[in-house]
Amino acid sequence: MRIDTEKLLACAADTARRTGTHALTNSARRMDVARTMANDVKLKLDIECQALAARRIRATFPGHRFLGEEDDTSTTARQPEFSFAKKACPIDAEASDVLWIVDPIDGTVNFSHGIPLWCCSVAVAVRNEIVAGAVYAPALDRCYTARAGGKATCNGRPIRVSGRKKLSDSVLATSMDRTLHPGVPPFSLFHSVAPKVQRARILGSAALDLCFVAEGSEDGYMEGTIYIWDIAAGGLIVQQAGGRIEQLARFPGNRICCLATNGLIHDRMKAALRPALRALSR
Ligand code: LIP
Asked: Which entry of 90, 110, 170, 199 is 20 to 30 Å from 76 by CA?
């Protein structure tokens, strides 16, 4: 069967828009909690929005597979390593080779507090290569998209990464690496890069941070333990906007250490992270 990445992208963008809009229009229920964890929360709307996204995708592509953040086994069933497809090429594949990767609300804590930095992220992988992705931020009304070999866009207009070359001029978005690895002190990655950049920022939505790197308002994004549904769509958008995304390490529970930049500061950012990364592999 011939896979048409344009059709995949159109469905990804439509699903991200519909799902994000559902969360926005139901934001009066943003504090209805399904489960509370240490430093995190799972909302009833997370689960409801994922079900909506899955229905939308299955209605168009019945035979395709689906991986969502809210699946019961998302952090326990071992996932393969995913990469980002660089070139557009005709893809011959079975429907079961296609996997939709969805984070219905990325930035759940922001959403539950009424902070407008959250989004719905929808990506498509064919044989573990991400070929299309869409990120919709409803409160900002911005829809970012990309497919392999195509241009990255925001609301239909092409976007491009920044041209900043110096770490000391750069804004780096990151998170708190509180519990990175046994024996590695908390905040090791943060401490190794934050003093070297103009400002480190913790905005609370990885998918949206990646889109900000893609459009050049941030110069880099780094996170010690993130999941594929947070970075699949945004990572392809960074790459197609001229940037670079790299998965630096993998940890049990499908967690990934990820670095994405405008490309120009990538190697220096990686060098700054190296001592902390070395500690991770011990
Ligand atoms: C969250 C991220 C956030 C990251 C957290 C978490 P959720 O996703 O996007 O930026 O630091 O580790 O994964 O749980 O809101 O979908």
From this structure: 110
